[in-house]
Amino acid sequence: MCVKNPPREGRVFCRPVRRRAKNHRVPEDEPIEPLAIPITGELDLHAFRPAEVTALLDDYFAECRRRGIHRVRVIHGKGTGTLRATVQAHLRRSPGVAGFTPGDETTGGWGATLVTLKPADSC
User: Fold this and answer.
1) Is residue 76 situated within a structural domain?
2) HEC states along 66-118?
3) Which H or E element spans position 4?
4) 26 occurs within a structural domain
5) pLDDT tens, residue by residue, 10-40
6) Strands of 42-44's sheet, edge to edge?
7) Among residues 71, 25, 16, which one has the least CA distance to residue 48?
8) For the chain, how many structural domains are there in total?
9) Residue 71: inside a domain, yes or no?
10) Torsion angles phi and psi, residue 115, rounded to 5
11) CATH no. for residue 63?
């Protein structure tokens, strides 16, 4: 789940991540380090699990609208298409999304989705 942090140098979102060495299990009681995500109108989901994506998208879009950003490029990668399907299914249900389209050859092709957000006062 996404956690809001106080704004710091344009980065307001984080998620818990567990840093671990290769083949090393992290104990459950070990502290979790946050990962800051800049609000730039481009969200790269490669570091996230599909279960984390919907809450992250909602929080990220809300912050984009607050900052006046109404076009967002969501990079989900090509892969098997699972993450893309998760993202696009969520976008169809999201009340803050005016529309979305797959990226073109200059914006990431089918490895990205271009999202148009509704204005902050209409959500």
Assistant:
1) yes
2) HCCCCEEEEECCCCCCHHHHHHHHHHHHCCCEEEEEECCCCCCHHHEEEEEEC
3) strand 3-8
4) no
5) 554 555 444 445 555 555 555 556 667 889 9
6) 42-44, 71-75, 112-117, 97-102
7) 16
8) 1
9) yes
10) -115, 135
11) 3.30.1370.110
